[in-house]
Amino acid sequence: MFTGLIAGVGRLAAREARGGDARLVIDTGTLPFDGVQLGESIAVNGCCLTVIGFDAASFAVDASNETLALTTLGRLAIGAPVNLERAMLPTDRLGGHLVSGHVDGLASAQRRWDDARAVRWRFAAPRPLLRYIAHKGSVCVDGVSLTVNAADDTGFEVALIPHTVEHTAFRALQVGDAVNIEVDLLARYAERLQATKDWT
């Protein structure tokens, strides 16, 4: 589990074809990396991936075809910045919201504008995902926990404070770019409970 509070920005250093899928090498950049262990989970742009090798400045992960097809990781350019977060500890403060690192789908950056010191973004998203995105609710965009400022049947809007822009890969985002989206866990479970309320 993750919080959606980005701990560092790294970059995609390499993508190697491996038996039909891919191995990714991620430079850790500003991510605190002490005590890393084989098998631990690190969220890369919101995708929960397992560390299968590392050195002092990078780590390697295997990405399945499902991950490559359903997230932005299969299309990122080498050198592209990525948001990084190590899995939370039981003693961590939950400053964002509960994030599983299981990407639900992609959205497209549709519009950017300044709002005082904040930066506002509008994302176009598929309708099956938008049903779970609510005004003042939480959404995870490329691994970043954000509050929804507006939502309708074609997309949603968020506002990024200067700290978020400065300390995430959002500073490199361009209109038209694809982003990974994870909707709020509670929304999905609430829908499932409602759908199965008559089960005995």
TrEMBL record:
Domain Lumazine-binding: 1-97, 98-194
Pathway given in the UniProt record: Cofactor biosynthesis; riboflavin biosynthesis; riboflavin from 2-hydroxy-3-oxobutyl phosphate and 5-amino-6-(D-ribitylamino)uracil: step 2/2
Catalytic activity: 2 6,7-dimethyl-8-(1-D-ribityl)lumazine + H(+) = 5-amino-6-(D-ribitylamino)uracil + riboflavin
GO molecular function: riboflavin synthase activity
Superkingdom, natural source: Bacteria
Name the record gives this protein: Riboflavin synthase
Function: Catalyzes the dismutation of two molecules of 6,7-dimethyl-8-ribityllumazine, resulting in the formation of riboflavin and 5-amino-6-(D-ribitylamino)uracil.
InterPro entries in alphabetical order: ATP_synth_asu-like_sf, Lumazine-bd, Lumazine-bd_dom, Riboflavin_synthase-like_b-brl
Top enzyme category: transferase
NCBIfam families in alphabetical order: PRK09289.1, ribE
Quaternary organization: Homotrimer.
Keywords annotated in UniProt: Repeat, Riboflavin biosynthesis, Transferase
Per-repeat ranges for Lumazine-binding: 1-97, 98-194
Pfam family for this entry, one: Lum_binding
Entry's Gene Ontology BP terms: riboflavin biosynthetic process
EC number: 2.5.1.9
Annotated Gene3D superfamilies: 2.40.30.20
